[in-house]
Amino acid sequence: MKIAATTVASQLLRLPWHTPLEQWTDDLLAALPQGISRHVVRFINLDDRVIAVKEIGEFTAHHEYRMLRDLGRMGAPAVRPLAVITGRKDADGNPLTAALVTEHLQYSLPYRAVFSQQVTPDTVVRLIDSLAVLLVRLHLQGFYWGDVSLSNTLFRRDADAFSAYLVDAETGDLKGSLSDQRRLYDVDVARTNIIGELMDLQAGGLLDCGVDVIDIGTRIEERYTGLWQELTGEESIGLEEAWRVDERIRRLNDLGFDVGELKVTSEDNRVVFRPRVVDAGHHHRQLMRLTGLDVQEQQARRMLNSMQTYRLAAGLENMPLEQVAHRWVSEVFEATISQVPAGLKGKLQDAQIFHEILEHRWYMAEKRRADVSLAEATRSYIDLVLPGHRDEAVYLPTGDDDDTDGAGLDALVDFG
Ligand SMILES: Nc1ncnc2c1ncn2[C@@H]1O[C@H](COP(=O)(O)OP(=O)(O)OP(=O)(O)O)[C@@H](O)[C@H]1O
Ligand SMILES: [Mg+2]
Asked: Which residues surround ligand 1 with Cβ inside 6 Å?
């Protein structure tokens, strides 16, 4: 018997490889939710982790191991491969199927487990959106999946974010870059499989029969296409063009995606956008956690975007976001608010003023088709917009302000 593994080899040696996986005893098994599959798959408790063992032909096992390993190296969301076991024999010397061992993806749920609780149409939409993000990310890496489906995907909720991970790479192939034809084939397979899987759920009473599954299946196509165009459609953005980074973030926001990460590639200083799917109210909670600022959802979203672009421009990509947030508050947020003359301070809440300055800057940059510094936008806003505001503090004793997006814009001046 041969164990090809990078780590955990000694722990793997103790497992009963001379017995078919189906006969492994309960004391070895970890009871965790598992999706449907053609092959025998079992979760096993090791000392310090849970692994997934799948019995599969030797050639395929090696192929899948390589795919998962390469995807992992590229930082793609996929389960992590640990080992391939070949040359297994039972007590009588009869050959047994080879096995692929992967690390169990913690807190992940197969879609059937997600649906075993009551799910709102909203959750279904988020699952599909996160699968669209996954597919775009894989395609950007040149990975052709070949068998995109809900059952070959694992879903994970990290706080308010929904992430999808690839679990089954058997049919996958890594190309330098993918032809449009292959990409669209993957999308088509996804659509067909999702519709079939949702119909199964309806037949099994797990999904309301009123839900239009064709509609949801088609959503994957639309979301994928929108994202793909947004992420690849234009020539690359250079780091110096901050307003275009901002523009791109806004368009992703408008599509309903959030920017999870902004990165600069080392070769050509291109800015890479990594989208993600988040829950309602996420931005408010995240900003609160990071900075203690208690603001409305839209304000928080803009402020978090500002934090991300600050992080990028200041070259702080490797600094934890908690620390970046701390610096952003003093160097960006408070530095901006401190520019507001005392006489105008009572007009609006600080967070709303900051939010409006960001909006103002955005309109200025759009008009000019060039960068506008925050300092310039702040001066312009203080001179032209803020004086026109009613004194909101006077009649808003709670400090609550629902009109987060529109306020102030009617007072906007035309920079013709
Ligand atoms: N590393 C892992 N972490 C969590 N769950 C896993 C892991 N590996 C496998 N699973 C679970 O086992 C299920 C089956 O795995 P997989 O899709 O690889 O099997 P398969 O037999 O190749 O599937 P198919 O029928 O699509 O060919 C998955 O849907 C998932 O629920
Ligand atoms: Mg599968």
From this structure: 34-35, 37-39, 41, 52, 54, 79, 102-105, 108, 110, 151-152, 154, 167-168, 170
